[in-house]
Amino acid sequence: MEQNGLGSLSGQAECILCGYGKGYPDALTGTLEFSWEVRGLYGKQDAYRLKVWKQGENELVWDSGWNWSSTQTGVSYEGKPFVSNCDYEAEVSVKISGDLQSSGRVRFSTGFLKRAEWKAVWLKQHEAAGTSAPMFRREFIAENIPKRARLFISGLGYYEAYLNGKRVGDHILDPAWTDFDKRISYVAYDVKEMLLEGKNVIGILLGHGWYGGLKKVLDPCFTMRLIMEFENGSISEVSSGSTRGWLCTSSGPIREESIYDGELYDARDEMAGWSTREYHIPHNGSWLTPLVAEPPEGLLEPQDLEPIRAVKILDPALVTHMEDGTDVVDFGCNIAGVVRINIREPEGTKIVITHAEILDRRGRPNRKNLRKAKACDTYISPGNPAVYQPRFTYHGFRYVQVEGLSEALRPEDIKAVVLRSDVAVRSRFECSDSLVNRIQEMCFQTESNNLHGVPTDCPQRDERQGWLNDLTVRAEEAVYNFEMARFFGKYAQDIADTQGKSSGAIKDTAPYLMCGKAPADPVCSSYLNLPWLIYEHYGIKSILQRFYPGLARWTKYLQDSAENGIVRWGYYGDWASPITESDKSSYGAGAVSKNTPIALMSTGFLYYNQKLLEKIALITGKASESEKWGRAAQRTKLALNREFYNKEKGYYATGSQGANVFMLYLGVVLEEERERVLKNLEKDIKAHRVHLTTGNICTKYLPEVLADNGRIDLAYALVTQTTYPSWGYMLSKGATTAWERWEYVDHGWQLEMASHDHPMYATISAWFYKYLLGIQPLEAGFGTFQVRPYFPIGLKWARGNVHTVRGMIEVSWEKKDICRDGQKQLIQVEIKVPFNSKCSFSLSEAEGEIMADGEIGSRVMELDSGVHNISIFLPQNR
Predict the structure, then answer these.
(1) Do 516 and 508 meet the contact criterion of CB atoms below 8 Å apart?
(2) Which of 50, 178, 473, 797 has its CA 20 to 30 A from that of 128?
(3) Mean per-residue pLDDT, 660-683
(4) pLDDT single digits (tens) 792-833
(5) Cα–Cα distance, 813 to 804 (Å, whole number)
């Protein structure tokens, strides 16, 4: 489906339409699934009814009839087959305590449902592109203004489209990065209001993007269809169906453009009005007929995730004019994006803008950790005032150095344009501890900076890949902070596209371009986590059905590679722990753990996969397979204990924090040994003066396991530590985004693997929502959810919310100075349970008394939709 729609139920609700389906290979085989949210009232849904009409003809294509059910997520369309390139309207009606409310009609559109329907070729420029950005132009006649007009377009790597001199849409760096040998995304735009009666001009500007890659250099190309429908029923089309009518040039102002290196823009070569109907083609041979390009191998499909957009504009925090005439600009925080600068310089003046995330000791941008990425944009002035913003690149930076200006840069003349996939912010968290709030801000900013069509590892250096090992733990943090259903649905397919047809093995990165190994490290359970999180948080069951065969094949690959139940191979394991816990001679600038065995991590994730597949198989109606996975998991559990548990000493492997906490998290520790392992874990943490020793994987599990096992105060002390290694230490060194290493690295041998904007240690953000607020789903789509808050010593209050498909969950709690009988601490909690949801509220502490809505309750209470005020009396001052 091409568009999501938003409508309202009498001003009190929204209907959110979600489309999940892919063309394999000739038709859209997935189903459109409807979800809706009722806002502004509490209560329970008694029944629902969905209707879908074909717009224009007002033909009813589906009427679900009244379903006496509380279901409001993942309702599959079961009407007449959709028609390609067609507008539809949907309406949901619900009955609530006998009252009927309706959303009103919500519009959505279809793309092309069969591959053969795309009757257009790919065009490229008439000569080798090199590094320039080619420009294409075509004139056409519209006898009348159409009643409907859709532009469908894709480019490899990036494109910008123009109609009559105006930019089409607000997407940046489109289309989203995919494995172009497997699939390519196209986007649909409503361009009716941009068309003129008579002569019109469409212009296309192309950039290399990821299509050029690092392993091969390919000429950028595009394909497009502009379909116009008129009142008299006629249809007219302008497309790249042939080279006829098209002209192209490589003589435009963008002389070089690269994701990693930046852009060279010579404004003296600008062709004013090149995409307008007033422009006259010069007779100098610069515009020639393009060539037909060999089409890419991948399927052409609708782009089914949020586009990259400019989501924020930042003013500089500080501009420093240096003695040599250059200017260094500090934007106050690490971001991903580009700068926008006003330039007033004589013709031919070269302005060079370099980017970095840290400064050297001279106060200049320190670019050594960018490795081979130049991260440099160059502008050559045309001699008149201009505003410059690069098009087909982005950088990770906090600082920029501007060279070539004749006068000191004024702060009002430069801004940072923040670019990311425009996923909505989902949640909010804050508490009485300013350090925790700063950690949350740091985590949020780090994740935000690494969402660019794929979840990248970093936005600045010559990498920017979607690493699956980091994502195994990072994904939950992302899904708590942002609306990730569409983004992660797309990325799960990217992972599937790396999977071997015969072996079932996936690769370390997706799309697979230049980094990582094949097969992937066994810790790459992100392949399973993404569909599971979409199901768990958004109630989309079909995502599990769609990916189950691939998830099973990857897990079977790991299972078959085991020796006596142990997966003895792997590359990364618990990656990048503190340098004292790492093998300094290992790859990744000493990033492999020396204390947490790779075999333990690899086998642990085999067990993790088996247990998760046991649940997925059962949910998707494969009971016998569920039992099979359960039996396999039991065998792996026995192997882990046989191989790694030291019964004499009560710990796993070397007794490292990572080894013990991972086994506890997985639940493989025998019940009679559990407390011994916990005490050894606690002992090791205290032996390190309440510091962690874990890497990218086990750091997520450490505070969770401690909280779940009655050590909330120790967990909180770890989280709020301010000396190395800790999140507080990062902040003390000026960090605004989480680092790749626990160490502050600005020089030396670690610098090649020392990103200062790396989301693998941003995973702690999920802990704030899951434990300090206590919000966790118990039923798919938060139909039933848990609120089980923890109240560590030193934290006075916490509050926040999580937006779910059913509505907003809000939780706040505060400790009061009033004590009951002089011994018990009073904590007041308020919980807002959305419409048609249920909340299971419980205490994390071993003992306590609850008074909910004025009545004494047990330690576990079931709360219906509404606002609930709860008083808790704890046995001691917390």
Answers:
(1) yes
(2) 178
(3) 98
(4) 999 999 999 999 999 999 999 999 876 655 667 889 999 999
(5) 20
Write phi, then psi, for 129 (nearest 5 degrees): -70, -35
Burial of 672 (0-12, 13-18, 19+ CB in 10 A): exposed
Question: Token pair of 581, please?
Answer: 């816990």
346 Cβ contact partners less than 8 Å away, ≥ 6 residues apart: 381, 383, 406
SS3 660: helix
Q: Is 552 exposed, middle or buried (0-12, 13-18, 19+ CB in 10 A)?
A: buried
pLDDT (0 to 100) of residue 781 = 94
Domain 773-874 in CATH: superfamily?
Maltose phosphorylase, domain 3 (2.60.420.10)
Give the H or E element holding residue 101: strand 99-102
Enter the tokens of residue 750.
Answer: 């670690």
Greatest CA separation found in the chain? 95
pLDDT, greater one: 852 or 32:
32
pLDDT at 822: 60
* Tokens standing for residue 424: 């909505």
Exposed (0-12), middle (13-18) or buried (19+): which is 877, by Cβ within 10 Å?
exposed
**Helix, coil or strand: residue 712:** helix
362 class by beta-carbon count within 10 Å (0-12 exposed, 13-18 middle, 19+ buried): exposed
Q: What is the reported pLDDT for 854? A: 65
| Secondary structure letter of residue 306 according to DSSP | P
Looking at domain 308-421, does it have CATH number 3.40.190.10? no
Query: What's the rounded Cα separation, in Å, for the pair 306 and 423?
Result: 6
Residue 423 gets which letter from DSSP?
Answer: P
Determine the Cα angle at 507 with ends 505 and 513, to 5°.
145
The answer regarding whether domain 13-109 maps to CATH 2.60.40.10 reads yes
Phi, psi of 333 (to 5 degrees): -160, 155
Q: What is the pLDDT of residue 13?
A: 36
Q: Are 225 and 152 in contact (CB under 8 A)?
A: yes
> pTM of this prediction?
0.95
* Secondary structure of residue 780 in the 3-state scheme: helix
Three-class secondary structure of residue 699 per DSSP: helix
Give the closest residue to 871 by CA, choosing from 846, 852, 858: 852
Closest CA to 253 of 201, 205, 217, 203: 205
Mean of per-residue pLDDT scores for the chain: 92
CA distance 541 to 76: 10
Is residue 556 within 8 Å of residue 636, measured between CB atoms? Answer: no
The answer to whether residue 302 scores a pLDDT higher than 90 is yes
Q: What is the third-level CATH fold of 427-770?
A: Glycosyltransferase (1.50.10)
Q: Mapping DSSP to helix (H, G, I), strand (E, B) and coil, where does residue 570 land?
A: coil
Q: Given CATH 2.120.10.30, say whether it is the number of domain 118-256+270-302.
A: no
Neighbours of 2 (CB within 10 A): 22
Helices (H), 358-481: 434-448, 468-481
pLDDT in tens, 259-296: 999 999 999 999 999 999 999 999 888 899 999 998 88
pLDDT tens profile 717-756: 999 999 999 999 999 999 999 999 999 999 888 988 999 9
**3-state secondary structure (DSSP) of residue 57:** coil
* Each residue's pLDDT tens digit, 697-725: 999 999 999 999 999 999 999 999 999 99
Classified as helix, coil or strand, 858 is coil
- Report the pLDDT value the prediction gives residue 129, as an integer from 0 to 100: 55
Residue 418 pLDDT grade (very low, low, confident, very high; cuts 50, 70, 90): very high
Do the two domains 118-256+270-302 and 308-421 of this chain adopt the same fold? yes
Classified as helix, coil or strand, 238 is strand
Sign of CA dihedral 405, 407, 413, 419: positive
β 358-359/365-366 pair status = antiparallel
DSSP state of 579: G
What's the alpha-carbon Rg for the chain, to the nearest Å? 28
Distance CA 678, CA 314 (A): 47
